[in-house]
Specification:
single chain, binds glutathione
Length: 211
């Protein structure tokens, strides 16, 4: 079986989060750029990879993985040399999974709902993330005292949460909060982040040139 790691993405998509993660992991991968404006993600070739017709997705050793949180969790485990996840027997594993899935199920939904100006739920108890305020308060508690979610150890969950916060700030869905701003700056201050940002620009230019 091939060890190839294929990465299906588009430069201005949630694929950015996985792109950063892949650069942090440091293993070779083959980008498969899709032009969302040209609906390349809805063509049969890609629907065979992800029937949702959404990016990102990866294929590693013949297995398809979709959903950003699943991809992060998978990559951190598949490439343990990067030390981005506590081992299965480490008690910190539970905390790590907790925040990884909180980011996916609560932080993301709370930020997107706010970006889309969706009205607050009439029954917050029935909403998986409850309320925007509770999600942000909980995240602030998780990041205190820091510097990372697991204290001194940076994990894949930090790259995911920092990506969510970066998106929230960029879209102004998330109001400036000093604790989040300092955390985002801390997590982003890594060569992997600079590489991914530079490559994103190149990939966007490549897609444009492709016409
Ligand atoms: N739950 C998915 C969300 C993926 C997603 O919504 N991707 C967007 C780009 S940011 C997409 O592909 N949108 C194109 C479409 O749905 O047509 C994940 O976590 O990967």
């Amino acid at each position: 079986m091939s060890d190839d790691l294929l990465f299906y993405t588009s430069p201005m998509s949630r694929g950015r989060m996985v792109h950063w993660m892949l650069e942090e992991i440091g293993a070779p991968y083959k980008p498969q750029l899709l032009n969302l404006e040209k609906n390349e993600h809805k063509k049969p070739d890609y629907l065979a990879v992800n029937p949702m017709g959404k990016v990102p997705a990866i294929v590693h050793r013949g297995t398809v993985i979709t959903e950003v949180a699943a991809i992060f969790t998978y990559l951190a485990d598949a490439f343990p040399a990067a030390k981005l996840a506590p081992s299965l027997t480490d008690p910190k594993r539970g905390t790590y999974l907790r925040w990884m899935f909180f980011a996916s199920g609560c932080v993301e939904a709370a930020i997107i709902d706010r970006m889309l100006s969706r009205p607050a739920a009439s029954r917050p108890g029935a909403l998986a993330y409850g309320s925007y305020g509770d999600v942000m308060k909980t995240l602030e508690i998780a990041l205190t005292p820091g510097p990372y979610l697991l204290g001194e150890q940076l994990t894949a969950a930090d790259i995911y949460v920092a990506s969510q916060l970066g998106f929230g700030f960029m879209t102004k869905a998330l109001e400036p909060r000093p604790l989040f701003q300092a955390y985002l700056a801390r997590v982003s201050d890594r060569p992997s982040n600079k590489r991914f940002m530079q490559q994103t620009e190149q990939w966007a230019a490549e897609l444009k040139a492709r016409g």
